[in-house]
Design brief:
Largest sheet: 2 strands, antiparallel
Strand content: 5-15%
Strand order of the largest sheet: 1-2
Number of helices: 8
Helix content: 25-40%
Low-confidence stretches: none
Distance between the termini: 35 Å
């Protein structure tokens, strides 16, 4: 009815399942605004929730963009201005220079510490005490804590968790009602994972 060969769609879905080291949970094909095919191979079901892992970062960036559109923050805002009570006694030049944009491009200049969040209840304070070894914005280093800091900034400027902010502006309008996001020990959505 929508001009797509059903056999081609079946071959496509079969080919996805044949890819080694791939675990397909759900596939939805949409054409002209209509769902024309769905597959959710066992043991998965259409109603199952699925963790998005690092794809969660996409929604963090979306929340930042919405906050910018609402004039709640700017790309050039300095990270230190959002958390004055959590700053170390001595603020390095590089830390003082770090902006929202630097976090978005994962160019904070801080060496990623993948176990820090397992050992400290206050992730913001701990992250802000890390040495900023590179000039912010000059070197990409994949670090989910940059996304966490963005989630913390969104929460600070909106007065609500990033998940609630996205529910209000995106998810509710899309009729996405079953959505959850992991939080840090102090109640901030993790940003870089956990949606």
């Amino acid at each position: 009815a929508e001009g797509v060969d059903p056999a081609a769609v079946n071959r496509f879905i079969d080919s996805l399942q044949a890819v080694k080291q791939t675990d397909i949970h759900h596939v939805m094909v949409v054409r002209h605004g209509k769902v024309i095919a769905e597959a959710h191979p066992a043991p998965y079901r259409a109603e199952d929730a699925h963790t998005l892992y690092s794809c969660s970062k996409t929604f963090t960036s979306l929340a930042v963009g919405l906050a910018i559109e609402e004039n709640r923050l700017r790309l050039t805002d300095r990270v230190t201005t959002f958390f004055p009570e959590k700053l170390p006694d001595s603020i390095s030049t590089h830390l003082a220079q770090m902006t929202v944009r630097d976090l978005l491009i994962m160019g904070a200049g801080i060496k990623p510490d993948w176990i820090m969040r397992n050992n400290h209840p206050d992730w913001i304070t701990e992250w802000l005490t890390k040495p900023v070894t590179d000039t912010p914005g000059t070197h990409f280093q994949y670090d989910s804590m940059c996304s966490f800091m963005l989630a913390a900034i969104v929460q600070r400027v909106t007065g609500m968790t990033m998940l609630d902010y996205l529910k209000k502006h995106i998810f509710n309008d899309m009729h996405i009602t079953e959505v959850d996001w992991e939080q840090s020990p102090d109640g901030i959505n993790t940003g870089g994972w956990g949606l």
